[in-house]
Design brief:
Length: 111
């Protein structure tokens, strides 16, 4: 697979590359956070509450509910404009690679 490109409106201009297991269906959902969401930050061996991750990263409270989340197979792949998940980072191993961009004014949320 030569990779796919997905454009998401909302947020500052930001870019992310990530990988899915080979031949995985590229079906994604874009949504805002929900209570109980969990995310595995880069370098961590397990997931943590998304709320705690956003607080640790000092994301302003008024922006947290407006950040777009890229979801695959019910897992957060990317917190838009903030960080890709450890589970989906580009490793160079056999995988299908994707790129995604945010476009538009900062903090406008998911359209």
């Amino acid at each position: 697979n030569g990779g796919e490109r997905v454009k998401v409106r909302g947020g500052s201009r930001a870019h992310c590359s990530f990988e899915l297991p080979p031949n995985s269906p590229p079906r994604f959902i874009i949504r805002n956070r929900r209570p109980g969401d969990r995310f595995q930050p880069l370098g961590m061996d397990k997931a943590k509450k998304l709320k705690d991750f956003l607080i640790d990263r000092k994301i302003a409270a008024d922006l947290r509910d407006r950040l777009p989340l890229l979801i695959w197979n019910e897992e957060i792949v990317w917190v838009g404009g903030v960080e890709v998940s450890e589970r989906f980072k580009v490793t160079g191993a056999e995988a299908d690679r994707y790129e995604v961009w945010l476009e538009g004014p900062v903090g406008t949320g998911v359209d």
